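> example.struct
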């Protein structure tokens, strides 16, 4: 297929904006790039998607999300509003996840995937919990991901909060899903090993996870101070030291949040090449504080951008990152546009490459995976590669995405979903969510 008459935003090491270009897709890759007239003359029989001058750019990547949280939208928490993050966990998330059945898990994922396609996010790194439906839950999500046609890395969050049997079931679910992909690779899917957070994991469970699995982990770290206090009480060390002692850091491990780590922990993350993900909308919503993302980046820690289950419109997360650090530090130099790009584009693409190493992601280049979006944006001021971050921050809207392509397959064209029935999915989701809400209220 040829996408013609596009203005390319290439991202990558040398970001360029190239007008009137065509891109030829072959299989799941970008096969050729060049002026529209030349590629059309060379490939006259290819199917053509005329971009009509729109911007063609790599799909967005989300480094940390929770599909299972979808039914929390509009859900009332009985009693007074939770006063801090531990209360939010106990009174919202640890009740909601227990109310999920396998079908709820499927539709929670599907509504997030619809949202991702519509708003231009093509790769998602998910972290799943459904304590009353653990076995096979990652298969259910994997089927939804393939049905949607997007790319995702999945894991199940192991925790001791529901007793040793469910901790063991969580371990098995991660191992089972990982093994199934090793035996039967599926190009849109990858697996890692999920851990909830240090504060709900005993040394014994950490040891069981480490000895059962050779790869990296995906874990929440120091989202709130209580996680650090718990680690000091349990182990006499802070969280990142504790994870290091269990040999859980490294270039395949993702530590989400890291709001309350200290300089030694940051250095341990850097030295081990461990990834950090930043979720500013979630951090603001839970009032847990602002991670020192600029300090971490300056140190050389690869900080990425996730959404923690907020909308899969990643430019909304860009805007939150841009504004949050200015407000939090009363310094307009905080959260600079190029810092946001470093997290959301450069580092997210590198992290996605850990799980999908077959070809470059997050860049328009020959041989890269064809995960692309068209954006109907009409700049009212000059737009260049240099000022693009600020056009995205102040001008782009998620609704400007008109086409989404993943692995060379067009999933949305002219804002129409080609493989998912949004009306059916949302109708069923509303039915299922009301059942979840009833069980949540008991
Ligand atoms: Zn999270």
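> example.seq
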């Amino acid at each position: 297929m040829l996408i013609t008459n596009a203005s390319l935003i290439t991202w990558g090491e040398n970001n360029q904006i190239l007008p009137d270009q065509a891109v030829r897709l072959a299989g799941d890759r970008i096969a050729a790039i060049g002026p529209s007239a030349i590629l059309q003359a060379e490939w006259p029989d290819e199917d053509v998607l005329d971009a009509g001058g729109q911007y063609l750019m790599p799909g967005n990547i989300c480094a940390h999300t929770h599909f299972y949280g979808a039914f929390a939208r509009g859900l009332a928490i009985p009693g007074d509003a939770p006063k801090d993050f531990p209360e939010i966990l106990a009174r919202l998330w640890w009740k909601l996840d227990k109310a999920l059945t396998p079908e709820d898990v499927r539709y929670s994922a599907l509504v997030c995937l619809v949202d991702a396609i519509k708003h231009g996010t093509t790769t998602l790194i998910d972290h799943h919990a459904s304590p009353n439906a653990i076995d096979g839950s990652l298969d259910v999500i994997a089927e939804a991901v393939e049905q949607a046609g997007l790319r995702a890395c999945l894991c199940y969050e192991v925790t001791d909060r529901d007793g040793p049997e469910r901790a063991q079931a969580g371990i098995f679910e991660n191992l089972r899903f990982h093994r199934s992909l090793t035996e039967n690779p599926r190009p849109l899917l990858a697996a890692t090993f999920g851990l909830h957070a240090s504060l709900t994991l005993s040394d014994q469970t950490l040891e069981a996870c480490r000895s059962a699995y050779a790869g990296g982990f995906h874990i929440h770290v120091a989202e709130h101070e209580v996680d650090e206090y718990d680690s000091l009480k349990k182990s006499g060390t802070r969280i990142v030291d504790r994870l290091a002692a269990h040999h859980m850091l490294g270039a395949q491990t993702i530590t989400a949040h890291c709001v309350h780590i200290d300089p030694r922990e940051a250095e341990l993350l850097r030295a081990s090449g461990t990834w950090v993900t930043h979720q500013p909308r979630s951090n603001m919503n839970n009032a847990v504080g602002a991670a020192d993302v600029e300090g971490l980046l300056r140190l050389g820690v690869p900080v990425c951008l996730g959404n923690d289950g907020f909308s899969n419109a990643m430019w909304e997360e860009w805007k939150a990152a841009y504004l949050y650090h200015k407000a939090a530090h009363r310094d307009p130099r905080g959260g600079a546009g190029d810092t946001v790009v470093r997290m959301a584009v450069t580092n997210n693409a590198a992290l996605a490459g850990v799980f999908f190493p077959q070809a470059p992601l997050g860049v328009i280049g020959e041989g890269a995976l064809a995960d692309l979006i068209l954006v109907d944006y009409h700049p009212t001021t000059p737009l260049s590669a240099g000022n693009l971050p600020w056009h995205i921050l102040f001008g782009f809207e998620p609704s400007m995405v008109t086409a989404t392509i993943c692995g060379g397959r067009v999933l949305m064209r002219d804002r129409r979903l080609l493989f998912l029935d949004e009306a059916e999915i949302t109708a069923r989701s509303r039915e299922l969510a009301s059942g979840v809400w009833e069980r949540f209220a008991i």
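> remarks
Residues 64, 66, 127, 220, 256, 308 surround zinc ion (CB under 6 Å).
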